[in-house]
Design brief:
Distance between the termini: 21 Å
Number of helices: 10
Low-confidence stretches: 1-12
Mean pLDDT: 84
């Protein structure tokens, strides 16, 4: 698990944090031993994710996983449902053949990547999580607007921990079919269907996080 806390990717770090309960203390020395990395690497990673609100720094008490806050997850989901379908419409309107090829390749990679890895526990695998992010971002890249894509990057990172908590409670969710529908609608240049599928896709995750049982991953 060197990569889980040693790499710079916040989504990967959030994957490690997704194995802890909301509000659970994060002790750097224990994490270093658990993941086989140096204490300095752990502290650097924790400081990074604190800045991205994926962990909390407690005065005189170290670090902790954020307490479960349904309002925060719903606000993030609302932002994504408001922004991403609009950006997807622009991508479908503006995307060229190279964009189509990248979307198809990103979906193929996502579909062929195992959702879970035994060595990482019963959570989304790091490889799948990265393929998932790449697919959603590639779908939107056709818009050609780096400001909008930067907004996507920020909200995606902010939602990573909640996404993992929701996955823990819905192991039978057919995410593969949801992503297939997204790819098909986008490549068919059917903006209305694509936007509707994406909105429903984001709404399902938000609904799972609103379930009281999700408060205790």
């Amino acid at each position: 698990m060197e990569g889980a806390l040693g790499q710079a990717g916040s989504g990967v770090v959030a994957g490690a944090l997704g194995q802890f309960k909301p509000g659970e203390p994060l002790k750097p020395q224990e994490l270093a031993g658990r993941y086989g990395v140096s204490l300095a690497v752990v502290r650097e990673a924790l400081i990074r994710v604190v800045g991205e609100q994926l962990a909390e720094r407690l005065p005189n008490r170290g670090f902790a996983v954020p307490a479960f806050c349904d309002r925060r997850w719903q606000e993030i989901a609302e932002a994504r449902r408001t922004i991403e379908p609009v950006v997807l419409r622009l991508a479908i309107e503006r995307g060229d053949l190279d964009w189509e090829a990248r979307v198809r390749a990103a979906h193929h990679r996502l579909a062929r990547t195992p959702l879970y890895a035994p060595e990482e526990g019963a959570y989304l695998s790091s490889a799948w999580s990265e393929a998932h992010r790449a697919f959603h971002r590639t779908l939107l890249e056709g818009c050609g607007n780096p400001v909008l894509l930067d907004t996507f990057d920020r909200t995606w990172t902010a939602s990573e921990l909640g996404r993992r908590w929701s996955a823990h409670h819905t192991p039978d969710r057919d995410a593969a079919d949801e992503h297939r529908q997204l790819e098909e609608a986008a490549l068919a240049r059917d903006a209305d269907t694509a936007a509707d599928v994406l909105t429903r896709h984001l709404t399902v995750t938000a609904a799972i996080l609103a379930d009281p049982e999700t408060r205790s991953p």
